[in-house]
Amino acid sequence: xxxxxxxxxxxxxxxxxxxxxxxxxxxxxxxxxxxxxxxxxxxxxxxxxxxxxxxxxxxxxxxxxxxxxxxxxxxxxxxxxxxxxxxxxxxxxxxxxxxxxxxxxxxxxxxxxxxxxxxxxxxxxxxxxxxxxxxxxxxxxxxxxxxxxxxxxxxxxxxxxxxxxxxxxxxxxxxxxxxxxxxxxxxxxxxxxxxxxxxxxxxxxxxxxxxxxxxxxxxxxxxxxx
Length: 226
Description:
226 residues, alpha+beta, 3-stranded mixed β-sheet, 6 strands
């Protein structure tokens, strides 16, 4: 029999020092990281920044849209106010025109009442009706104008007669042939009058008299001397 040389069997593991674990026997490998990969914190920060930029862009769009809508609303409000004022002005104008047309038709009646009053014929029931009509016309804004002695104004007077008078210094209404009527500032009929102007040469005579008086004062040394 041949002697077998002591040795390791194929499946026999090498001896491990006492107190050592299997993990110590195995080589440790460090966890592998992909080259160029960003850390988790940097990725989260990038996402947050992208969201902030998107929200800021949306906020700018909303602010722009709000500004445009506010401008449109202000323009519409101004147009509405102008429309209301225009409608109110037109309404007042239409009312004044309607009242003026109505009262214009009544002017001949008022003239007849005035002539009857001048001749003393405004008596009895006719007087009461006439005065009621005049009161209603006055409430509707009708005003009578035209008086003797007032200066002639071609914008409110219509001269039907013309003469010269020595006692006037300008063209003057010396007789009211037909009174004028107005509503507010609107004249619906001018006053028909007779006018008188200063006599030709009257101003020249007065000027000569004034110059003669001045010459006399100069010659005598003035009224306080002598």
